[in-house]
UniProtKB/TrEMBL annotation:
Annotated protein name in UniProt: Bifunctional diguanylate cyclase/phosphodiesterase
The EAL domain, residue ranges: 24-278
Coiled-coil ranges from the UniProt annotation: none
Organism: Noviherbaspirillum cavernae
Amino acid sequence: HAKKMGRGNYQFFTSEMNTAARTRLALEKNLRSAIERNEFMLHYQPKVDIRTGAMVAVEALVRWNDPQKGLISPAEFIPLAEELGLIIPLGAWVLMTACQQNRQWQDAGLPPLRVAVNLSAVQFRQRHLVEFITQVLDDAGLDAASLELEVTESILMQDAEEAALILANLHAMGIHISIDDFGTGYSSLAYLKRFPLDTLKIDRSFVRDISSDPDDAAIVRSVVALAHSLRLKVLAEGVETEEQLAFLRALGCDEYQGYFWSKPVPAAELEAMLRTRAAHPALPAQSAADTA
Ligand code: C2E
Ligand code: MG
Ligand code: MG
Ligand code: MG
């Protein structure tokens, strides 16, 4: 009887495995054809100066627009795209599209801003990355100062020597370099000064409970002090409420991003936002909170 049950369990287990494997295989096949058919689109989320309320940059975030399933979040396909090497063509498309979009906004006479693109580890280590980015900027007719690249701590720590070299090249071109999700990885603080960086983006897990959790507030305060002493800017991710914003401002954060100001939106909506801003450039300075 035990044997029979064991076998039953085994069969159950393998059929589960098969389902998982089939699902994955289907996703892999769909992802490959999605890249061939170009079923992706970018949404853009503003990065805002915490004191003036001015939009300083926009982050490009990729979505898969599946004809059947609708918009699929990057969390569901970026890891697989990385594993399969598909992040190289997909990442190239993201970079080109973001740069061309920024060129179009500038051509339309909108206030100049940087467009930020997320780089995955596989992309960062690809050969000729610097040449490729140079080519993309050239093709788009965009200057390097209008581009920002977001990399994670783990990308930097994998091979710090090599990473420092790559970043030095990109930074020397005039590209703005940010560390994404800062505080969630294991970067050694001593290493930070070896990388040519411009901005630390504090992960949203520290922002969520900032008004109620003194530990989170202490962490943010420390990151701000560290960043400022290294002459870096600090951006807080995932700001959803006025209260969080007030705390971040009091702690000395320079910039923020989050649903409070805007979700990531399609290019046309971002453009409309920019036009409104261009028409009303004088936003009230947040002077009350500055004294907090
Ligand atoms: P990320 O670069 O840290 O981007 C921030 C994520 O937080 C985005 O999720 C954004 O929509 C979300 N977010 C922004 N504000 C808020 C907020 O106030 N509250 C909450 N709860 N969430 C907020 P999204 O677009 O789903 O992207 C997830 C991740 O996928 C990104 O994290 C990034 O690591 C990756 N990703 C997105 N696009 C690309 C890409 O083109 N290339 C690569 N390599 N990775 C990408
Ligand atoms: Mg990012
Ligand atoms: Mg982030
Ligand atoms: Mg994050």
